[in-house]
Design goal:
2 copies of one chain form a homodimer. By secondary structure, chain A is α/β, with parallel strands linked by helices. Chain A contains 11 helices and 11 strands. The first copy, chain A, is about 40% helix and about 20% strand. Chain A is globular and about 60 Å long. At the A-B interface, strand 7, helix 10, helix 11 and strand 11 of A face strand 7, helix 10, helix 11 and strand 11 of B.
């Protein structure tokens, strides 16, 4: 399947590598191709600049947001929270109409220092904002509660732990679950939180996620919902 | 030890029973004793009205908020979120000065229908508001991420799962950990999230907790943070 990924950060790269390994055709979309290929800063995990990363991967295409939106039969938003809505507007509604958009982003607000807060929460969410902006797109929020490596390799954390998903379209969620299975997620560890308003509940996990990261000094952990007997 | 509990709901009652079982002396504080003993509505789990519950427990005292505040060497806020600050004001700062106050409440706002949202979140929390209101009290936020029965009996959910705590005073947290151990929580399953600002991160678990409750149709579950290797 042809997959368009918005975002050239850790999450976009990690998903792109995994999707190519799974024999999908991948195009990464960025705001300005020239600028993206000019930047020489590495990523936060000590990886090389994007231009080197993409040079080593001739099988992965690079385009504008609109190119990736047109190209993908399935789309993934792997942008920063603040970058998501402007980028998706640039990508063009017509290019995305009717497609599934996996939203992995989180509404992190770094403007008031560390740790970041959320620029939308509680009574709304970034997932919902994206769905409202793109009513003809089938937004599925998932994978936003863990680090980029764990998303595509759940075995990096041993034992049972969950991936949450939510969205308004049942067929779209089935498509996403199929992909999650390919990433290594067992069906019984996927928790469907219902419609897209569930996005506010998973985005609101970020504050405790960030605090645990600070405490553990590494991001290789995940949440498991342990269920007892009704009563 | 003498323990004062604010609140006559499920959480207050569950904690009172357990603390008595652990040979503590317990006084429950309420806004208006006469009204509390007049009410004939049961609790949400089908339990009897408070007046019947307390009649069966002559060993548990009932007083005003101020009585319970004076009585307790250790205090517990088991009130509703919206009731917490007004009640703690009534309890009287002088009665609480220097004491440990375990805050189990959540800032749930039912005013806009179900599911409730949070009336404070993201950049502040109810735990922090209480600490600011009572600067001479050692507030420890804990147990607010699970149902009342599980708080005092972690084995109701099998396997490993966590209780979070946070607060500004290290000695107070040690006191609370000791109590949590008596409730059945293993030390290694307690996660200290640091100072009282951690309260916003656990209070923000409520939205997903409530959604999981709706999905599972029962509240007997808990979160476990599963940790992998650093790298």
């Amino acid at each position: 399947m042809k997959i368009g990924i918005f975002g050239t950060g850790m999450v976009g790269k990690s998903l792109a590598d995994k999707l190519f390994e799974l024999e999908h055709d991948v195009m990464i979309g960025t705001r300005d191709i020239a600028k993206t290929l000019y930047r020489s800063d590495g990523d936060i995990y000590g990886g090389p600049p994007f231009k080197e990363w993409i040079r080593e991967r001739p099988h992965i295409q690079l385009g504008t947001f609109a190119d990736a939106a047109k190209y993908g039969e399935l789309l993934i938003n792997a942008l920063s929270g603040s970058g998501s809505l402007p980028a998706l507007k640039k990508a063009g509604k017509a290019n995305m109409r009717g497609k599934v958009l996996i939203d992995v982003s989180n509404p992190l607000d770094f403007s008031t220092g560390m740790p970041p807060t959320l620029f939308v929460s509680n009574t709304d969410s970034l997932g919902e904002k994206i769905q409202r902006e793109l009513p003809r797109v089938k937004v599925v929020k998932t994978l936003n509660t863990m680090n980029a490596y764990l998303m595509v390799n759940p075995e990096l954390v041993p034992g049972e732990h969950n991936v949450f998903l939510c969205g308004n379209d049942e067929e779209a969620k089935k498509t996403v679950k199929k992909l999650l299975r390919k990433f290594g997620w067992k069906e019984k560890l996927m928790i469907d939180l219902g419609d897209i308003t569930g996005a506010r509940t998973t985005e609101m996990l970020l504050p405790i996620w960030l605090r645990l990261w600070g405490k553990l000094q590494h991001p290789m952990f995940n949440f498991n919902v342990v269920v007892g007997r009704k009563g």
